[in-house]
Amino acid sequence: MSDGTDIPFESPMIPTKMTLDDTFQFRCHKDIACFNQCCQQIDLTLTPYDLLRLQRRLGLSSTEFLAQYTVPFEMDAQAMPGIKMRTQGDTTVCPFLTPAGCGVYEDRPTACRYYALGLMSMRAKDSPTDEDLFFVVKEDHCLGHRESQTQTVREYRKDQGLEIYDEINRGWRQVILKKRSSGPSVGKPSTRSYQLFFLASYNLDGFREFVASEGFNDIYVLEADLLDILRTDDIALLNFAARFLKQVLYGENSIALRPDAEARRLERRSQRLAAQPQFTEDRGYDEPMVD
Ligand code: SF4
Ligand code: SF4
Known about the structure:
The chain is of the alpha+beta class and 291 residues long. It has eleven helices and ten strands. The protein has a two-stranded antiparallel ribbon. Strand 4 (97-98) and strand 5 form a beta hairpin. Helix 5 (162-182) runs parallel beside helix 10 (234-250), helix 6 (191-202) runs antiparallel to helix 10 and helix 9 packs across helix 10. The longest helix has 21 residues, at 162-182. Mean pLDDT is 87; it is low at 4-11 and 278-291.
C-alpha cells in the first residue's frame, strides 16, 4: 500500500486529478482474491490524528507508541520530520495485519482509508487557501479496480470515515503545505523549530505537558478556560498545536505573547547555559523547551 500523500516518480497513480464529485471504479471486500495484499507492502506516513487514534486504541502513551510502531523520516529536502508506520521485523508487512484483516480497522490511518485513492493538497504560492485533489492509485496486486462498483470521491471518503480525519488534520496539513508552497523564501527552520514541530505533531502527551509548563506560560498568554480544555481535550489540543506551529514557523501570531517574554526567555536561557554548559547539545525531541 503506497502512501497517497505525494506522487513519486514512476508512481502507480493515474495522473488524472479528480475533485469530490468525480467518479471512479473500485470496490474492496473480504472475499476478493487479493484480500490483505495491500497491507503486506506498506509505506504509510502517519498524521497527528492517526497517531492519536491508534494510541488511544492501544492504550499507549505517545512516547510508547512512537517507540513501538513508528520510524522517523525526512519529509522534504530540508529534513522536515515525518513519521511512518514501522513494519513487522525486516518485512514490509503492517504490524496490525491479522489473518482476518486489519486488527485496528476502526482506527486505521488516513492513508489506509484513502487507498485506492491518493490525496494531494496543493496551495498556489502566496494563496491563503489550499485545494484538495484526488488520484486513483492502481497497483498490480490490487484487484479492486476490476470490480464493477463506481462511486464519487465524496461518497468514498464518507464511506471510509475520512471526513473527520481530514478535518482534524487540516491545520497540520496547512503547516506543511505552507512550507512547500513558500519554497526557499521561508528558509530552513531552525533545529529548535523542528523539535517543536515534532513535539506538537507527533507527541501529543509531551505537547500537553509543554503547554502546561511554566516555561510556556512565561511566554504565552492563554485564557484559563482554554488551558483547562487543553488539559483534557485531545482534539482541541491538536487544533491548538497547528496554531502554535503556524506561529513558531511562520510568525502567524494567534497566541498572545507576554510583553517581556523575549527578555525573560533570554535570561532563563543564559542561566541554564551557565549552570549546565552541555545543555544546548543533543536536546531530545522529548525535552520540550520554548527557547
Ligand atoms: S493499519 Fe490496517 S488497513 Fe492499514 S496497512 Fe495496517 S492492517 Fe492494513
Ligand atoms: S482490493 Fe486492493 S485495497 Fe482491497 S484488499 Fe485487495 S489489494 Fe487491498
